[in-house]
Every structure is written in structure tokens, then in C-alpha cells.
């Protein structure tokens, strides 16, 4: 599978048309780095072993969740409904999945301050899904204009 989709329109660089798989890998990589650094910093007072474990755990978890969210948005965006209804559907479904999965993980882990722990993930995850779905809508609109 090609990382970059080919385009016949030479006015736009072909690198802007990343495949869904490439977008998922890119977003997951960014999430891994960002949240691993955040977790490492948040645990810096507990020694290097704690920093490393927290960074790897949170980084891997964030990469997996981001990949899942990206796949969910890509899947839910397809369809025949109005493109802005599809954006809303993607955003709300992602928020629901984030809330349920994070509450379950932290319930099993016995986290004391669950809402304060996961609130940033809910906010950033929902914004990510919204922006990603809006990007898909914009891409679809541009593609339709080119076909006309």
C-alpha cells in the first residue's frame, strides 16, 4: 500500500494526499511522543525507572488509542449522509469511545481521580476527531470540485 496517494493535479503537491494508513501512523507517532514526554515529566520526581515505565505505558496507550480513533473516524466518515452530519457522528462516537474506554481502564487500575486524570484526553481526543473529520470533509469537497 502506498503511503502517498497519486494525483493527476500537478498544482498541489502529492505529499498532501496521505493515505488513511499513513495518516493513522503519523497521528499515532505524534501521540506516542507527546504523551510519553508528558508522562515522563509528570513522574520525574519518582526516579528514572518510574519515568521510563510511565513514558512507555502512556506513550503506547496513546498511540493505540489514537490509531483506533483515526480508524473509527475514517470508517464513520464514509457514507451517503450530509458531510457535516458525518463530522458530527465521527466526533460524538469518538468521544463516547474515549469516555467508556478510559473510565474502564482507570476503574480497573483503581485510579483515585479518574475525571481529572482523563479529562485532558477527552478534550484533546474530541478536538482531534473533530479536526480530522473536518479535514476529511474539506478533502471530499475539494475532490468533488475537481471532478466538476
Key phrases:
148 residues, disordered N terminus, mainly alpha
What would you say this structure looks like, in words?
The protein has 148 residues and is an all-alpha fold. Helices cover 77% and strands 0% of the residues. It has four helices and no strands. The chain is elongated, with a radius of gyration of 18 Å. The model is unreliable at 1-16 (pLDDT under 50).
The shape is elongated
Helix content class: over 70%
The radius of gyration is: 18 Å
Strand fraction band? under 5%
Cα distance, first to last residue?
28 Å
In terms of per-residue confidence, which ranges show pLDDT below 50 for 5 or more consecutive residues?
1-16
Q: Count of DSSP helices?
A: 4
The number of E-state strands comes to 0
Mean pLDDT: 81
In N-to-C order, the SSE pattern is HHHH
Largest sheet: none
Which class of secondary structure composition applies to the elements?
mainly alpha
